[in-house]
Amino acid sequence: IRDVVASETGVFHTHQKIGPVDVYFIFNTHAEQRKISFRLRVEGEPEIWDAFSGTVRPVHRFQIGSGYTDVDLTLDPYEGTVLALNPRGTRPAVVEDNLSSLVKVQPAGNQIQLQGFAAEGGRKMVRVAYQGREYVADQKISPSPATIALEGPFAFQLEPTMNNRWGDFRYPASNRMIGAEARHFRYREETDVDPKKSGWHQPNFDDSDWPEVTYSYGPYWWHIGPFQERANGSEAHLGRLERAKQGMLDLQKPWGRGEIGLPALRWKPYSFSQKFGHYGEVHHSAGGLAGVSENFFVFENTNLSSSPTHFLFTYVHSPIDGEYTLHFGGKPEKSDYHDTPGFEIPRRRQAWVNGKQVLSVTQGQDIWNVADLQKRGFQFDLGAASNGSTKPAPEEVRTQVHLKQGWNTVLLKIVQPEGKKVATYATFTSSKTPPASDPYVPRLRWFREPQQLIYDIAPHQKKRVGWYRFQAPPGLESLGFQANSDRTKAWINGKSVPVRAGQIDLSSPIAKTSQVALRVEQQPGSYAGAAFPDPISFECQEGQIALGDWSDSGLRTYSGVGVYSKEVRLGHRHLQGQVLLELGDARTVAEVFVNGKRAGIRMSRPFRFDISDFVQPGNNQIQIKVANTLANHMSSYPTHWVLEDQAVSGLLGPVQLRFHSKVKLSATVVQ
Predict the structure, then answer these.
(1) Is the pLDDT of residue 293 over 90?
(2) At 654, phi and psi to the nearest 5?
(3) What is the pLDDT averaged over residues 603-620?
(4) Cβ pair 584, 624 in contact under 8 A
(5) How far is CA 70 from the centre of its chain?
(6) Which of 9, 82, 175, 182 would be 49's cystine partner, CB 3.0–4.6 Å?
(7) Residues 533, 539, 545, 547: what is their CA dihedral angle, to the nearest 10 degrees?
C-alpha cells in the first residue's frame, strides 16, 4: 500500500523517522475545514506535536490494523499539523463518535471513561476498541447556547513596532517609530476644470480613474520609443529630431507609422525617484535597504526585429554659468539573485545639450571605439569585454559640458540591443568624478547630496498645481508632511482644515477611516509623487475599524500591530461548557487577551482560542492584537519580493464565540 492514503484530495504530506517514532507533516490545501481520514503504512499510536506551543496531545480517533494505522483528523482551512506515531502500546482507540472534540479517553475498571465537547445537542454516541474488546456509550444532551457573532466596528488602536534607531527599516536611522503613513496617492493636475465644483475635495468623489503615484517618484524626463529608425529617416522624422535637439517638442503630434515603421508614438513623461531610482525589477537587493541600482533609465525587451531606439528629453536649470560633467552609462545587472537574463548597458548612446552634440558612443561589429572616444576627450570606466571582444566596453562615459545660467535643453538617444533589456543613467555633477558608490547606503548616488540643478519637463508652464487624494487610518489626530510646495491646502472628509508648516492638527480624532485631499502648488521639477520627498505620517488615537484587510482603511503600507477590542455580555448558561473564540482568518499573527489576561497566540490557522478559563458572567472585554509582516512596509520600495496577496493584513474574520456543551460518557463492553 502507499505510504499515506487520504480520504480527500488536496492534502500534502511528508514522512520522516526519528528513532522509533514516525513523524508526518500534513497540510490541508483547501480553503475550508475538512474531516479527513488517513491510512498510514505503519502501526502506532498517534499524537499531535504542536509546533507553536511545544505541547503534545494524544489523537484519540484511530484504529490499528495489520501493517497500518487509520487516523481521523479535522483540519482547518490551510492548516498544517505535525502528526507523530509512537510504537504500538495499550491506549484505547475511538473508532466511531459524533462529538465535536475528545479530550480524555481513559480505562477505569471494566469501563472506558470519556470526556469531550459537543457543539450541538441530541444523542451522542462513542464506540471504543481496547484490548481486543469493543466498548460503547450513548447519552442525550441538551442543546448548546447559540453562537455569538462579533460584528460591527471594533475599537481599534495602532501599536507601531518598527523602531528605526539602527536604520533597520529606513535610511537614515532615526529615534522615532515608523507608524502609519501615506506613500501612495491618487493624483491629477489642476487644469481649466474647477476642482471644487467637480468635488475633488469631497470624500465620495470617484478618483478611480486618477493615476496612482508614489512619494518621491515623479516625471523628470520626456520619453518616446521604442521604434526602429530607418537608415536615412524620413524628412518629417529628421525635422522633429532637429527640433527636439533645440528644445522644441511637439507633445501633441505623434511620430507616425509612415515615418518610423510602427504605430504612432507620443512623448510621455518618464518617472523615477531621485532617492530610489527606477521602480522595478532592476533592483537586485531586497527592497533597496541594502542598496539601490544606480540605473534609473530602464527599458524592457521589446521583441522588435532590430535594435530599437529611445529618445529622452528634459530641461535642466543651472543657477550659474558653469562647467558640469555629464555622466552617461551604467553597469550590467542581474534581474535578481537567480541566473535569469539581466539588464545590459546600451551599445549606442548620444547626447545633445542646447542643440549641440556633446557625447556619442557608437559600436560597430560589437567592438567599442575606445580609442576614438579618448581622442575626443571623453573619459570612461571600463567594463567587461563584449561578445568575446578583446576591447572592453565602456560602462560609463563622461564629458565636460557647459551649462548656461537658467534653463538648458538636453536630448538623449539610446539604442537598445536587439532582444535585450537595458538599464542606464544620464546625469550632471559639478565634480569631474562621479559620487562614490556605497552599497550600504540605500540612495541613488547621483542625487544623494543636495542638488543645484533642477530637472523639469515643463519649466515654462505657468500653473503647477497637483491634487493628491488618499485615505487616513481610524483615529486620525494629526498628519505631517514635507512638500516641495509654495502653498498647500487640505480637506479631510470634505471639510477645509488649516495647514501650518506641513502639519495638520485636528480638534478631535476622527473615529473611522477618513479621506484626505491636498491641493499642492508645486515647485519646479517636483510633480506627481516627487512633490513629497518623504511619506506623509499619521498620528492616531483609538478609532473604529471593520473586519477585513486594513489596507482598505488607510493602512496599506503599515507594518506593525493593530489592537481590536470588543465587549461582549455572557450569561451563566454560556459558561457551562467550553467557550471558543474563532477569529476566522488573521494576517498574520494574533494574540488574544480576555478581561486583561493573555489567552494565547497563533501565527497560523486555526485561529481558535479556548477562553473558557478567562470569561465571566456579565461584560467581558476581548482584545485581539494582530501583527502583519514587513510586506506592507516594503511594498512602496523598489522591490519585486512582495508577492501577490502578501500584504493583506489585519483581522479578516468572521469572528465568533462558539459554545460547546461538556460531555462525560462511560463506555461499557459490548456483550
Answers:
(1) no
(2) -70, 150
(3) 96
(4) no
(5) 42
(6) 82
(7) 50
